[in-house]
Amino acid sequence: xxENRFLLLLMALGAxxxxxxxxxxxxxxxxxxxxxxxxxxxxxxxxxxxxSSLGPLMYNQNANSKVGLGLDYSWLGFFVSVGNMESxxxxxxxxxxxxxxxxxxxxxxxxxxxxxxxxIFYQEFKGYYLQNTQEVMGETCCDLRDDxxxxxxxxxLFLVLKPDRLSMGxxxxxxxxxxxxxxxxxxxxxAGVQEITSGSVLAPxxxxxxxxxxxxxxxxxxxxxxxxxxxxxxxxxSGSFFIHITGLMGIGPQWQNLVTRDNGRITxxxxxxxxxxRSTLGWSGKSTFGGxxxxxxxxxxxxxxxxxxxxxxxxFLSIGFxx
Length: 323
Prior knowledge:
The protein is mainly beta. 10% of the residues lie in helices and 62% in strands.
């Protein structure tokens, strides 16, 4: 009897609501295609130990916009964006690219079915520059770190508590047509592995000892599992135009693995907090849709006295068509 009730509960959560008051689901056979410009921003910030007089290391990457493509069919969707970025700013002054070059890859697979949602993603960035070179090293911008690589593989799970008031597919992938304003609380869980590697150490040469354990590490890997809750709301503006925002916060354990320059290994376990936000400003019609979407994820890594902040911001300006 208990097993039957549990099965009925899962079927009710996964099935589209018969009273979808705020949006219209499209036919399961509808295919949506979108194309646009995507701008990734994945900075790394390393705080110095408390007894240090130095400021944080603020690594940033060349973030010129590149083409992004998305394809959705029924409840399953895919998004990809890849590119090589090189700054053209002020080459006459510096003789070469001020911010160096970066290569970027972003692959996402998502599924939204009724109250349930799943995001699987992989991001990789190679090539950073030290944004505050002048403050840290006393040199002209910028200290280029072509050897720095960051990778992020993860999965996010969502459960919307009132699926008749909020559709993740309609607001995130525009796979439905929004009709009225509405919102809902939601539960979420996430699991991911973030890795940072270098050709030498993570801190600039000569500053390793000033930035503690992670400054002396040539690679760092963090596996984080978190659970939490949040709220999402979609507001109609006029006609088919709407604005949406979701904020989520969770906490969970984190397993840390650092490899030093001499191949020593340091492992720690610590609690970690995760913040995730999504926003959309767009329109969704029967045959066309588009708008601006911004995805933000932030995780802090506490290593004794050092703190590494890993942020991921992806903006996507797109237009799409339904077939």
